[in-house]
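Teaching assistant here, posting this on the class forum so everyone can see the example we discussed in section. The complex has two components, and the goal was to see what a joint structure prediction looks like when all of them are supplied at once.
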Amino acid sequence: MDFSEYVVARRTALVRAAVLLGCPQPEAEDIVQTTLMRCYRSWRRVVKADQPDAYVYRVLVNTLTDARSRLWNGELPTEQLPDRPAEAVDAITGLAVRRALAAMTREHREVLVLRYYADLSERETADVLRIPPGTVKSRTSRALAALAADQNVRST
Amino acid sequence: MPNDNPTDEWARDLLNRAADTIDVDPAGPVETRGTRRIWPMLAAAAAVIAVLAGTAFVTLGGTDSTPPVDKVKLTVDRVPSVFGYDAAGARAMLEDAGLRVDESPIPSCEPVGRAVSTIPETGSPVSPGDLVDVQASSGNDLLECPYDTSSRPDAWEFLDFANGRGPAPQFADRLTLYVDGGDPVVLTSPDSADPAAWGELVQAIRENTGRVIETDPELPRIGDPTLSLDSRVSPASATMGCGYATPEDLIGREAMVLSFRWNTIGFYVGCDVTVELFRSNGVIDTVVASTKSAETRMTEVPSAVGLSSGPATRMLRESGFDVTTEPTDGPGCDAVGTVLAQSPEAGTAVEFGATIHLEENGLDDPDCTIDPGLVATAQSFIDFARGDLAQPPVAGSVDFYVGNVLAGTIPEGAAGERARWKGCPPGGQYAAASCPVSALDPILSLDVNWYTPQFTAAAPGGVCMVLPGSLPTSLTASYSFVTIVPASSISSCAFNFAIQLFVDTSDRIVAVNLVGSEP
């Protein structure tokens, strides 16, 4: 897959992943743009990787880490969820999940997003986060439990 | 819906539903318009930007009547770049452009008084009479700079001279100038003090430091070029800039290396303009410069040291190299067939298809053990990393290498300060990690995951280990070392490191080399 095809195919998912990882939405597109430009520098190596997505997500996580320390704290507002009209259930769910993610530690948020949104395997997630696969497994288990226990998520 | 037994499928569905509520403008098709390619490198960069700019850029690219944006030169209604100016020069330039100017100090790794940025930033829309705040460096007292800042005034002095904004640095009476691998040109005093006498080099510097890139035509954010600075001793196999051979009479001499990069948000395409300044007795006697790409296609040699013969040969051949091997005569500490050395060394720039010679361990040495004094030093270093020891055993100042590249020096008496054990190699990035990288964090990372570090007498190396440079022979030939590594059973391309401790005869640390992996 050449670079431009990859951008067209994956950019939306990467922006959404950046938001789920705690990046304010206005900055998420910039973060993804920076990520893709960094990947462009070594695109031949990226496409030779077993899983190009894992490589790109690794760069995305690093770029987010850089930006987090420099620009923003990655937190969502904590006011009560709005009353929900029936047709807005998905939006309510989305906000509840994002808020639950924001309330987690960064480590837990990362494993959830990489495993269940980016759809990376435990081994790929370990590669992205540079931690042993066993740590991915244990963090995922605890993060899943926290997500399931979140009051707002339970009520959606 | 409450879920007391969350499954993978439940989580996958939940996160995808959450993601679907995040509106994202879709990326557009690839922009292919390229008639404005005044500068090949810029055009390549612009093509990348075009891919990323999405639908907004496509609109500007010609599907309606909007005139295309000139991505090279700013129009008069934009804040110009102050790159390369001091505060007074920036003020004069901006006032000449009809703007009002204020100045404010900002902590920076640049020399005091150097213009660092503006508010509004470069490229922002502006009207005559608008106020622009020039942010000038107040020094780095409040910062932990990721590089040695002591040489930057000298670099700026040369740049100012080239741009006609300052006096000439101290040049030798006879200065030799090499440009793009061509024959040497001798500039004699006082001609060398005239920028016009430097021909295409000065022209290239002015083109590169006077231009900016527009990163987004809808939201005008325009990047300044950056000045990177390094110093190195030219080894015999070195190439300059984009691949020109090092002039023979410069091999072994130390140079200050300036490079100018179109580094808007972390990428570059093509070669940097590079200037290497060689000094004798404080005066510049030779300048070697690259102003454009070399025609020879070069690549870096990967590291095969530490691998066994078969995988090493396979890896190198798959990377396009020819391989020859030779066993050592004597026994070594590594398994038979382990690659002990390679020539050219890892990180050396060579032509594609070059031959790599591997030296493999020929005999087992049953008595091979690590000196107990070295083990004790390594253990003390680990204790310090864990916070169990106030200071590791050091001989004085400690050089800190990252991937075999010098990234800083821990001054004498400061080894107990944990923040000192961090560094960032030239270029600002290492093994896809954020700079600065810490020599202590890998130990803590092992601890977090309940693993025990191990010691080895082997130098760092192997597949995925990132070794952009070579350690100086003055270090490797003079000092013993021990290397701290994770157990081989848990190391992988994603998680591997080596902390090589060089010690003196009293087992006190004189240098540390941190090596990391990259998938």
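For the discussion questions: Chain B touches chain A through 48 residues (CB under 8 Å). The two ends of chain B are 39 Å apart (CA to CA). Think about how each of these relates to the inputs above.
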